[in-house]
Amino acid sequence: MVVLSKIYTRTGDKGETALGNGDRVAKHSLRVSAYGTVDETNATIGMARLHATGDMDVALARISNDMFDLGADLCTPDRENDAGAPYPRLRIVDVQVDRLETEIDAMNANLSVLRSFILPGGTPLGAHLHLCRTVCRRAERLTVELSGAEDVNPAAIKYLNRLSDWFFVAGRIANNGGKDDVLWVPGLTRDA
Fold first, then answer.
1. In-domain check, residue 187
2. Which one of 17, 21, 32, 185 has the fewest beta carbons within 10 angstroms of its own beta carbon?
3. Is 177 part of a structural domain of the chain?
4. Which among 162, 171, 173 is positioned nearest to 100, based on CA atoms?
5. What is d(CA 180, CA 160) in angstroms, rounded to the nearest whole number?
6. Is there a domain that residue 108 lies in?
7. What is the CATH number of the domain that holds 171?
8. Residue 16 domain flag
């Protein structure tokens, strides 16, 4: 369990931070950028939850907790499948990805087929979920980039990919089942 008795430590004053395994890296390292953007995604979930109720709020709360699991996963390099670690490493697992897929399918089953791209907006919750989606996509891009240089849990990348889709479909649900979606009209403002 985490114990935080003192919030500032001064150990990062020279631009370095500690990873989950104790290694020190630059705060601008790709790994820190990836899990930092996961944290940023989680902050946008907190904002969305201000407008969520019922099942949507419950799902967002669970996803918010998953995001801390994902941050823990990404902040601890995957070396030799974590053999010899003093404690089991927290990793995203396929069950978490599968849950997102099941929920996406259930939400999407009640929505009309899209015939246009959707602009961010609609209801306050819908707009916040679109923000969640775009920040999540950035976290995914950074994590994929990290995976090109270092070992990354493949389930972590899949989770981010599905989660951005989840946010998209949840945004449509939040927009009165798609009725309040703001549709893109190509070239709408080109002519005077």
1. no
2. 185
3. yes
4. 162
5. 26
6. yes
7. 1.20.1200.10
8. no
pLDDT of residue 88: 76
How many domains, in total, are found in the chain? Answer: 1
Q: Which residue has the tokens 């969640």?
A: 132
Report d(CA 180, CA 173) in Å as an integer.
Answer: 9
pTM: 0.90
**Comparing 9-13, 18-22, 62-66, 113-117, which segment has the lowest mean pLDDT?**
9-13
In this prediction, residue 127 carries a pLDDT of 97
Q: Chain centroid to CA 99: how far?
A: 14
The tokens describing 25, both together, are 């890296």
Structural domain range at position 175: 24-80+89-182
